[in-house]
Specification:
Blueprint (H helix, E strand, L loop, with lengths): L2 H22 L25 E3 L4 E3 L5 E10 L2 E9 L12 E8 L6 E2 L13 H4 L3 E9 L5 E8 L4 E8 L6 E5 L17 E3 L1 E4 L4 E4 L1 E2 L2 E6 L5 E5 L6 E2 L22 E4 L4 E2 L4 E8 L14 E8 L7 E4 L10 H4 L8 E9 L2 E8 L3 E8 L2
Parallel strand pairs: 12-19
Antiparallel strand pairs: 1-2, 3-4, 4-5, 5-6, 7-8, 8-9, 9-10, 11-15, 12-13, 14-15, 15-16, 16-17, 18-20, 19-20, 20-21, 21-22, 23-24, 24-25
Length: 371
């Protein structure tokens, strides 16, 4: 065999071994597979209307796009809170008003939806942060006492911030305000920040994910562009961890020639396991110099493992995405480059369900066996 052919064969073998090693890593959640039927699980409904409390008029609240979902298990059902965009504003990304709809399912795949949104901008203390852009990209966790804590993006058309809301039943919500409003003298109120997931654990008695405490504190991974870390004692007021210069510490940043070569972005609430903290995150590929298998500007999801005793210490990270746009509706839509944007992870019927947005237009799900 010629030397060149041997090198090609050796390279292919190494790639195969590397892929198998990634798939076989015991800490990974996955591998994920798409159900044979049922996807997309949530699609727009132009006929849906409700009386908007700000407009004081009917709004077609889920007319254009339904995407980027949070997910939680309650009463042996999966509840998905999905971002829905109306037909107002400008025909561009971020140009419409977003509200959160809710759907429920007994099998995690086939959903029944409520006719009106359950979370939306209103004449309340958060209106200036949420109107006219709305409430976007939710993540949700359950606390030890059975209450629900929602982290979401507040978007007023000028600046994005991380908002927190609480609910006893997923229907009635209280908005304490921005997650970082009292941190570092309020400086984070002036900084663009979004995408926040609170660390969870699998409660074996309850059979579902619950917000986890480590060293007496709750932990939250957050950020778009880079991924940072924050802590809290009450799940509503959060303090970003900072370096010696007073900047939010950076745990993940772009990697050339990888699927996250433009930036990483925090995904669904991370999971505390025996191996460490598993964070599923979303990566945006670079137009040039990124992962050639993904496509320019496309989003795929990867996984990273942090130390359970030191949540800022990175242990391992996947080189390839564990979920990427493959189907036509994941590659075409409002976001033409394609996305599989993961935001909702639940343990249900002894397996994992991961809910994600497709091209900023639809909601789909993948599943994985529980280890």
């Amino acid at each position: 065999m010629k030397i060149q052919a041997r090198l090609v064969l050796a390279g292919a073998l190494l790639c195969t071994i590397a892929l198998q090693a990634q798939e076989a890593a015991p800490w990974l959640i996955g591998p994920f597979t798409r159900p044979a039927t049922g996807n997309p699980v949530v699609m727009p409904r132009p006929e849906s209307t409700f009386i908007d409390p700000v407009l004081k008029a009917p709004a077609h609240w889920e007319a254009l796009h339904t995407f980027n979902p949070a997910a939680i298990v309650r009463d042996n059902k999966v509840y998905v809170l999905y971002r829905a965009e109306d037909n107002s504003g400008q025909m561009k990304i971020g140009g419409h008003t977003s509200r959160l709809g809710m759907a429920e399912s007994t099998d995690g795949i086939h959903f029944t939806r409520r006719p009106e949104p359950v979370f939306f901008p209103a004449e309340d203390s958060q209106k200036s942060a949420e109107w006219p852009g709305g409430v976007e990209d939710p993540r949700i966790v359950e606390s030890d006492d059975g209450a629900y804590v929602l982290t979401y993006t507040q978007w007023n058309g000028k600046i994005a911030s991380i908002g927190v809301a609480t609910s006893p039943d997923l229907l009635h919500w209280t908005k304490p305000g921005p997650a970082f409003q009292s941190a570092s003298g309020g400086k984070y109120a002036k900084i663009w920040c979004k995408s926040a997931g609170i660390v969870t654990r699998l409660d074996k008695d309850k059979g579902r994910l619950i917000a986890a405490k480590i060293d007496g504190k709750y932990w939250m991974y957050w950020g778009e562009g880079a991924i940072h870390l924050a802590t809290s004692t009450d799940l509503t007021h959060w303090t970003p961890m900072e370096d010696a210069n007073g900047a939010a510490i950076v745990l993940l940043k772009p990697r050339p020639r990888h699927f996250d070569s433009t930036f990483p972005e925090s995904g669904p609430p991370p999971l505390l396991t025996d191996a460490g903290i598993v964070l599923i995150y979303n990566g945006k590929n670079a137009p040039t110099g990124g992962d050639p298998e993904l496509g320019p500007n496309a989003y795929g999801a990867g996984e990273v493992l942090f130390d359970a005793h030191n949540p800022a210490h990175l242990l391992e990270q996947t080189d390839k995405p564990v979920l990427k746009p493959e189907l036509p509706y994941e590659k075409t839509g409002q976001y033409a480059a394609g996305t599989t944007f993961a935001e909702g992870l639940v343990y249900f019927n002894k397996q994992w369900f991961l809910y994600y947005g497709c091209a900023d237009s639809l909601v789909s799900v993948v599943t994985a066996p529980a280890k």
